[in-house]
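Subject: Protein record for review, amino acid sequence with backbone structure tokens
Concerning: The relation between a protein's sequence and the shape of its backbone.
How to read it: Take the token row as a discrete description of the fold.
Enclosed: The protein record, placed directly beneath this head.
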Amino acid sequence: MSMICWLLGLTPTQISALRAAPSLVSNVAMAAQGAERKARFEELINRMTPERRRQVETNRATSEASAAVNLLQARIAEAGERIAALGPIEHALSLEKSWHMLHFLLTGRVDPSGIPGDLLLTGEALGEDLGYGPARLHSNTTTREFSRFIETQDLAALQARVDLEDMSERVVYAMPEGAGPRGVYEDELRNEATRYFLLLRDYVCKMSEKGNGLLVWLS
């Protein structure tokens, strides 16, 4: 099963509330993931042709009739109700499986190295296990430091660090395998790194400008 990394901006008031009631963290994560996936689906639907949209919506209606989907939707709704007192929650950012590659390209290491670029792998553990450990909380101060760090990163230099053989040897997560040409894989990785680096940079900088901290987790 894939390890997907999520980030969610939190206000200082929300951070204090979660520290006081860590059991709410899992509800925050579930509600944020559900909202983001719904938003992405709606965006995809809106880009489709009318005919294709009807087909997808018909299939969706069929799948939503299943007990498993109904249970998941009920759990997401219940999570939303439990965290209502926290106020409006920011939209979450999913880095998919690219989170470890980004950490490696930003720091040159596969593990935490004690610098501001460590944000994706560090933080204050809070709440229950979400699948791959508890969520990790970063204050608005730490978020601001990471924002300053990531703004100084040169995208071309980041792309130049992509080396499939080196990253595979160091066991960077989710490296491609197979008989395809290394050059092709590396071009794909550079495109992937570019896309998710820009998403990460923009999201973190936006949260920093708002004075928010960050919640990071793997699911």
Remarks:
- The first strand starts at residue 5 and ends at 10.
- Residues 182-209 form the longest helix (28 residues).
